[in-house]
Specification:
Distance between the termini: 34 Å
Number of strands: 8
Number of helices: 1
Helix content: under 10%
Oligomer: single chain
Structural class: mainly beta
Shape: globular
Number of domains: 1
Strand order of the largest sheet: 3-4-5-8-7
Largest sheet: 5 strands, mixed, barrel
Order of helices and strands: EEEEHEEEE
Strand content: over 45%
């Protein structure tokens, strides 16, 4: 279980805004990747600059790593949630530019070309029976001109 929220020092209470349990917890029981959606076609999308986690250290050579691109496959059985939000979400809510945390099963590497070294990481994650959490995507830039009205 993992809980995210705010600690109130005066009352010594923790108010959770997001609670993850079971396979939704990174590195829990499923493989996972966290990154930004670079492209999407149908029921698959590419996550860029992915931080990957494997719960099974023995078969993957290590619990965490990095991959420049991971192709993710989703389906009707994929649970979709949004960080800090309630409501019903589906795989159709996943869009290019969205920061995501995806849990599923990495395809097994086809070979280990260098004995004694970590296996070649897979670049394919099957999340058809897994989950996708939509995470607030941060944007930074410079305002060069502002129109009338309110921004907020």
């Amino acid at each position: 279980m993992a809980a995210f929220g705010a600690w109130d020092m005066s009352t010594k209470t923790f108010t959770a805004s997001n609670v993850l349990v079971g396979s939704s917890v990174v590195g829990g029981k499923l493989d996972s990747v966290e990154g930004t959606v670079l492209s999407r076609t149908g029921m698959s999308f590419v996550v860029g600059n992915g931080w990957i986690a494997h719960p099974d250290i023995a078969s993957t050579g290590g619990p965490m790593g990095f991959s420049p691109q991971v192709t993710v496959t989703v389906g009707t059985g994929t649970m979709v949630t949004a960080q800090g939000q309630t409501g019903a979400y589906t795989v159709q809510d996943i869009s290019v530019g969205q920061h995501v945390q995806v849990s599923g099963t990495f395809a097994q590497p086809s070979s280990n070309p260098t004995p004694g070294m970590n296996p070649t990481p897979s670049t394919s994650l099957d999340a058809t029976a897994g989950s996708v959490q939509l995470i607030a995507t941060q944007v930074a830039g410079t305002v060069t001109a502002a129109g009338t009205g309110r921004i907020g």
